[in-house]
Amino acid sequence: MTASIRQQAARVLLGNWTGHSTVPSHSLYPHQWSWDSAFIAIGLRHLSPRRAQVELESLLGSQWADGRIPHISFSPAVARDAYFPGPDFWQAVTQGGVETSGIIQPPVHALAAWLTHLADSDESVRRNFLARVYPKLVAWHAYLRDRRDLGGRGLVAIVHPWESGMDNSPAWDAALARVEPAPLESFTRRDTDHASDSDRPTDLDYGRYVQLAATYRDHGYDDGRTPFAFALEDPCFNALLIASEHALAEIASALSLDPVPHLKAAAALTSSLSTLFADGIFEARDLESERLVAAGTISGLVPLIVPGLVEAEELLATACGPRFRFGEVRMVPSYDLTGPAFEPGRYWRGPSWFNTAWLIHRGLVGLGRTDLAATLRTDVLELAATTGFAEYVDPHTGEPRGARDFSWTAALALDLEQP
């Protein structure tokens, strides 16, 4: 990445900064999103470690009393109808008066906090950063392990496709088909005002998303009382929790606290994660049917980031094989290239994403596969530079899709550019 591209990435992040957090995109996503902010902090730390700390602190300021970190923290400076579902739909307000959504997103936050600390440990210590965020992150992980182990196997379940961060992945199709969609006339989408219909989830799927969220809302976001029509154990979500438990162990050690509980939690999760492995890839488990979902998605490759993963070599073989063609197509497709539901331009049904590429790159480095990591790094940096920091790209052509000047694309390019 040339100096001019570094400046362009910085321009994106500074342009999307609101004074206390960074929006993913002013047009498409005008509020603060949970896992976006974690990825953004990972890049921001190279521009301003303090601003990266503030990014995470701002997000944690919207944490619920039960420990959950909601997937959206709504900005009062943005029109209430600028995004749907907005605050009037969710009807969720924290004890501190912050309006939020009621669902969650993957737990990248402890990893982001640890990496942010390492960027300038002196500034971190001076601001007491780790000591302030550690108990909040512990509460977040406790919520996930205690309230969301719906299958009783020690794995976290997601109860809405949006909680995976991979909204319309083919892995959710069968479970979503059980959901009676909210009538189209009962809501107004805002995402298609800013992106092509062909890139976004269908109206039918969106109606199902709305119905699932409304049911959870109408049961007070109570994980014990809500009749979940959609509940799956997602490999990406659980792999990121494992990575973040390892990060919490590092944070605990830095604070002269006991890291062992976090290491034990990571080990237990890693053992349970193995029950999701089949046919060379990790697959989600549908808790209604108690069966693995035979859809090869990028979620099933993200466990490459898990330290000591016994399935790593088989997983690498799948990534490099005909289903994902690592090194032959652009970055890493979000869905099996040979799969029946593959669409190269529609959201999580085929396009390649920068955040999942960053996670795979981190996994490759951890496995000592510097050759594969270097190939992926070069591809990420080239595509970020040539697409105007696109949200995602066509895996065959590299054509930009979704929003431009997308914050996590700029942030993660900045991170990978570092020597």
Automatic annotation (TrEMBL):
Record keywords: Glycosidase, Hydrolase
Family: Belongs to the glycosyl hydrolase 63 family.
Domain of life from the UniProt record: Bacteria
Pfam families per UniProt: MGH1-like_GH
Name recorded for this polypeptide: Trehalase family glycosidase
InterPro entries reported for this sequence: 6-hairpin_glycosidase_sf, 6hp_glycosidase-like_sf, Glycoside_hydrolase_63, MGH1-like_GH
Domain Mannosylglycerate hydrolase MGH1-like glycoside hydrolase: 29-409
A GO molecular function held by the record: hydrolase activity, acting on glycosyl bonds
Annotated signal peptide: none
